[in-house]
Amino acid sequence: MSSLLWVLTISLTFFLTTQVEASQGPGHTKMNPKFGVLVDGPFDMTCSFLGRDKKVVLVFRRLSKEIWEPKQSCNDGAGSETSHHVAAGKDDPKLMITGWYNDGQGWKQCHLKGWRADPRGTSLSCQTPSGGAMTVTCTKGRCARP
Question: What string of H, E and C letters represents the secondary structure of the chain?
Fold first, then answer.
């Protein structure tokens, strides 16, 4: 039985490590909640990316009033447009949508602009200093605002 537990532990560690590396995101860079948008989960989102900078949208879940941890991501490495379902947290449905870009000098948080109507739902967007852009569209209705 212990060998089965050992295999399961190694498999989960590999899977979770692969997920974090695949995000191509800011790693341990501190997230500033002032640049993100607070929503309630669950929701479906489509991420769209334009430009050359590396870009990623990270959704954080709240662990406590001041502590957030990455929950899910979409990035331009997967193509110019990707779709995802984001589940609500078990104890707290509050989620923070954030945008990030790498300008060659490290990851920086992009200031997501207010909600706009989109033919596919409601969206948030931001533009990088080099002219790149990312848009997060909540495709089934709206991302619920808390």
Answer: CHHHHHHHHHHHHHHHHHHHHHCCCCCCCCCCHHHCEEEECCEEEEEEEECCCEEEEEEEEECCCCCEEEEEEEEHHHCCEEEEEECCCCCCCEEEEEEEEECCCCEEEECCCCCEEECCEEEEEEECCCCCEEEEEECCCCCECC
Supply the range of the domain harboring residue 69: 2-138
Amino acid symbol at 61: R
CATH number for the domain harbouring residue 45 = 2.60.120
The total number of structural domains in the chain stands at 1
Q: Is residue 85 part of a domain?
A: yes
- Distance (Å, rounded) from C-alpha 120 to C-alpha 107? 29
Confirm if 136 and 55 have CB atoms less than 8 A apart.
no
pTM, two decimals, is 0.78
Encode pLDDT of 110-143 as tens digits.
999 888 887 888 899 999 999 999 999 988 656 7
Q: What pLDDT digit, counting tens, does each position of 43-77 carry? A: 999 999 999 889 999 999 888 888 888 999 999 88
